[in-house]
Specification:
This protein has 378 residues and is an alpha/beta fold. 33% of the residues lie in helices and 16% in strands. It is built from 11 helices and 12 strands.
Length: 378
């Protein structure tokens, strides 16, 4: 069942925020069932009469449904605001854009710290392991409840790019266009290694208490384990060149060079950003989403990767970044080559960037025209 959304007051672009509640069971890839559940999402622009202008936006690990625009009294816009909006590459005067928060996330959708119905206590570690397949299945249920049974396009970066590709394979007739940035066909050991640092740092923090912490326990001081794990994440999101350009060997001016814990600017940056992150992101959500990223494999459930890719009917656009040391461009090129051999519609753009994996978030000007042209092309 779909329960009516709530609407927040917004500024400028037509932006609505919603929470949809479902009482029907969601059958997960693991064999477990999630019931009931909720999905937080935002919409931008207006849907046309035949619902042919709908674009779905899928977010990365730490993202949320708030992809664009600003709320009243908000200083920071949504995480892809440079890409989505009136007159931008994903033009909300033309398209009706839906941005969802994935299951397992702590930003409004059902997550490990929600109550395990009918028990009046959080799931915590009893929450089911989720996969990318599960995430998109829930999103498809949401869209169906909204009366949207076909999409013009699906766009996402990193884990969002994984979701976009999974949609293309699992639901071949669901979207006309798929645009996947900084993603892969299966998470590789190199990336799993970075993720392992974060998972172990969280698990071994005494305050994590095997997931038995109280809601809001880390809002003031954060969780050290998550902050440490996030440092590993930040390193993987950047690149050696971008770190050299951003920090060099600059030393914090009021720290002594011969003090044991005196810091270079790169160290101060890591401390500041990761400590803030550990105050706003739930550690159990982090563990569950990282697990979903690690288990991502387009070929699972099919005879082979070739078999999975062969199912795709959408026009595929793959965008990778030369400086990405988390999901290497060759991984996206591999998908493109398989599509080309099958004479399926595909284009691969390797963006000249030394920023690193996070280029898909911060260097919009390097690829926004590609997305704009792909969306406008019939």
């Amino acid at each position: 069942m779909f329960i009516k959304y709530k609407l927040d007051k917004i500024l400028l672009m037509k932006l609505e925020t919603h929470v949809a509640h479902f009482t029907s069971p969601l059958y997960l890839e693991s064999g477990r069932i999630l019931e009931p559940y909720k999905i937080a999402y935002e919409t931008y622009g207006e849907i046309n009469d035949d619902a042919s202008n709908v674009i779905l936006i899928c977010h990365a690990l730490s993202g949320s449904a708030h992809a664009a625009g600003k709320y009243e009294n908000e200083t920071k816009a949504g995480w892809w605001d440079d890409l989505i909006g009136d007159g931008k590459a994903i033009d909300t005067t033309k398209y009706f854009v839906v941005s969802t928060n994935v299951l397992g996330s702590c930003f409004g959708s059902t997550s490990p710290m929600d109550n395990d119905y009918p028990k009046q206590r959080p799931f915590r570690l009893k929450f089911p392991v989720l996969t990318i397949k599960d995430m998109i299945k829930a999103q498809k249920q949401l869209l169906s409840q909204l009366g949207i049974h076909h999409l013009y396009a699906i766009v996402g970066g990193s884990m969002g790019g994984m979701q976009a590709l999974q949609f293309a394979v699992d639901y071949p007739n669901f979207a006309d266009k798929i645009i996947s940035l900084a993603a892969t066909y299966a998470t590789q050991p190199w990336t799993m290694g970075f993720n392992k640092v974060a998972m172990e740092a969280i698990r071994r923090d005494p305050r994590f208490d095997n997931g038995n912490y109280e809601k809001g326990a880390f809002e003031e001081e954060g969780l050290d384990g998550l902050a440490i794990g996030r440092i590993a994440g930040h390193i993987s999101y950047l690149s050696p060149d971008s770190m050299n350009d951003k920090f060099g060997r600059n030393y914090v001016s009021n720290d002594g060079l011969f003090e044991l814990f005196g810091r270079y600017e790169v160290e101060r940056y890591m401390e500041y950003n990761t400590n803030n992150f550990s105050r706003i992101f739930d550690p159990l959500s982090y563990l569950y989403i990282v697990k979903a990223i690690n288990t991502y494999n387009l070929s699972r459930g099919y005879d082979s990767l070739y078999d999975a890719i062969s199912r795709i009917k959408a026009d595929i656009t793959l965008i990778s970044f030369k400086g990405d040391y988390l999901f290497f461009p060759k991984e996206m090129e591999h998908i493109h080559q398989m599509l080309q051999r099958n004479q399926q519609k595909s284009a691969h753009y390797e963006i000249d960037s030394n920023y690193g994996h996070d280029a898909f978030l911060v260097q919009i000007e390097k690829f926004d025209t590609i997305i704009k042209d792909k969306l406008e092309k019939n």
